[in-house]
Amino acid sequence: MIAARAVQGVGNALITPSALAIVRSVFPPAELRGRLAAWGAAASAGMVAGPVAGGLLTEHFGWRALFLANARGAARGRWGDRVRRARRARTRGGTGRRGRRAGRSSPSSTR
User: Fold this and answer.
1) Rg (Cα) of the chain, in Å, rounded?
2) How many CA atoms lie within 13 A of 26 on its CB side?
């Protein structure tokens, strides 16, 4: 269990700089300050709320509730991604990812 937590820590240490690099490359300089602030606020809220929510779930429902909460969050995120893509396709006249990216070589070419 301790080794698995160590692997999670290493994974987080690798993902965090990558996420910041993606935020910097996707958004134009005019929006960058607000987007980085939102990313920082979400990361901070997650670091505070995660252990508290995990402790409450474990205390009241047992450790198996943690897996149920994660599955529910993953399903909600996947559903939200599909809804967001469908809305983009309707507003931009495309058919999802290909319609959205038609004519662009990379996300940074929109600047």
Assistant:
1) 18
2) 8
